[in-house]
Amino acid sequence: MSDKKTIKDIGRRHFLRNSAVTGVAGAGLASGFGAGALLNSQQARAASENGIEIAPGELDEYYGFWSGGHQGEVRVLGVPSMRELMRIPVFNIDSATGWGITNESKHIMGDSAHFLNGDCHHPHVSMTDGSYDGKYLFINDKANTRVARIRLDIMKTDKITTIPNVQAIHGLRLQKVPYTKYVFANAELPIPQINDGRDLESPDNYFTMFNAIDAESMDVAWQVIVDGNLDNTDADYTGRFVASSCYNSEKGMTLADTMRAERDWVVVFDVDAIEAAVAAGNYETLGDVDVPVLDGRKGSKLTRYIPIPKNPHGVNTSPDGKYFIINGKLSPTCSIIAIDKLPALFDGSIEPRDTVVGEPELGLGPLHTTYDGRGNAYTTLFIDSQVAKWNIEDAIRHYNGEDVNYLRQKLDVHYQPGHNHASLTESRDADGKWLVVLSKFSKDRFLPVGPLHPENDQLIDISGEEMKLVHDGPTFAEPHDCILMRADQLNPSRVWKRDDPFFAETVAMAKADGVNLEGESKVIRDGNKVRVYMTSIAPQFGLTEFKVKQGNEVTVVVTNLDQVEDLTHGFVMVNHGVSMEISPQQTSSVTFTADKAGVYWYYCSWFCHAMHMEMTGRMLVEKA
């Protein structure tokens, strides 16, 4: 058997070096890479001794997925280096990849494609038996009431669902066991039911809902109406219970009204009971929406309301599966709810407050809690600009009257932290190595860039007895939250598979036109519609010229025949607002109107070859 490697087997570096066309340019690139490999041993040793320094060419231990905040995207970082690796467009328009421009992305965005904004808050990775399985990442859009799913093998959004009957999806978490069957999503802001102009001035008739989305189909499985509003949420490790905080039990319409009560509550949902009610047909539908809607207001068998002080915010399940910890926000306390007491609560044998087994006082403005897997919790204190490390069992002992100090340490962070997230902490596998704190203000931490400041993501080493702040990193437009998973829990594709469903509709269109995408470049004319099929292989498009008439609707379909990883092509039609990415073995398409007669060049926008600049073609538009 021959040892000779095919072009499919070798990396881009070797492709560039060995390409006959690149000549000296290829050799220059090769020598550059070689020089990079000559990092001296002293530098490498210093990098390895510093917990956050990853030497050139070395890989991070964790993937971090950051919500993109008001950008409507997800950002991928390596941890602990905090290097940004990729941005995944979700609810936004992205001219680099063509997201929101290509036909494939518009199909995924569906009817909501006309929205030009998004507000991403909570990214969460799918699970099997309480451990991250690396299949999907889910993210919410508070601004336009949507939930999206990202395939982690290709790092592309593949489904977006608009949630009916509600507004402002905020809290989002996943069913942990036996697998992620449901995505649980809270609608934060109550609205009239049905919201068609009725009850505008009658807030008593405003309600919101807890929503369950089928993780595979991304259809809304069911909705549960609740009293008050809903904020954050988390699921247990039995598959039965989900808890959601409510900061507006008053159902106030103004800031002052939402702060009247000294206690609000946490709503606990019994998923088993809800599924049984749906199966028995014990639900209604609203208007022309056929999603089952169940009544979970006070007195329902589907829910229980546990009083909590005051305006609670974050809900976080401990990795041992024992506790929901609810963060007080306007109270200096966190409330510890024992999950093993919830069956008795639903049976009616104990009172709601009997489920609270601890309420440690931590400081001003507790928002979110994360864990190290060693029995310690880490809570952000927004007003104090600190992270409090505390021991859960000691806090429970203190609540029971023992003289014990549950606080372990308070660390200053900069400034006003919101979410925090420790490595693997949403799973059973919390390993207590790194803690990311997402601070809302940066003030004096970075060079000034005008009135709009960056946020500040800070990395803290929690592997020892004391927290150590080791890194500041500016970020744009309030990333809000993140999640960390081990690199070996994810296996991204390096090259597209030709049968990938992401572009299946485009492949079907080509088949109907009798076009072989892997071997033909061809123009199909269908009345006023023109479909232009072309291949691309570095450094040339399969068609370097095509002709249309003014006013034609033009669909350009490009198939990248390169099999070398990282050899991405782009397609830009000048002066037509058209741009898209075509990675190796991918097919992408875009539709536009050739509205002006003349010559219009198209070119490859992703550097692919030493002759990249010459990878061009012309669209000739004849006058109508």
Automatic annotation (TrEMBL):
Record-listed Cu cation Z1 binding positions: H313, H368
Cofactor: how bound: Binds 2 calcium ions per subunit. Binds 6 Cu cations per subunit. Each subunit contains 2 copper centers; Cu(A) (binuclear) and Cu(Z) (tetranuclear). Cu(Z) is thought to be the site of nitrous oxide reduction.
Biochemical pathway: Nitrogen metabolism; nitrate reduction (denitrification); dinitrogen from nitrate: step 4/4
Binding annotation for Cu cation A2: C604, W606, C608, H612
CDD domains, sorted: N2OR_C
Residues binding Cu cation Z4: H480
GO cellular component term, pick one: periplasmic space
Localization per record: Periplasm
EC number: 1.7.2.4
Pfam assignment, any one: Cupredoxin_1
Keywords: Calcium, Copper, Membrane, Metal-binding, Oxidoreductase, Periplasm, Signal, Transmembrane, Transmembrane helix
Domain Cytochrome oxidase subunit II copper A binding: 525-624
NCBIfam families referenced in this protein's UniProt entry, alphabetically: nitrous_NosZ_RR
Function: Nitrous-oxide reductase is part of a bacterial respiratory system which is activated under anaerobic conditions in the presence of nitrate or nitrous oxide.
Subunit structure: Homodimer.
Name this polypeptide is given: Nitrous-oxide reductase
Organism: Vreelandella rituensis
Gene this protein is translated from: nosZ
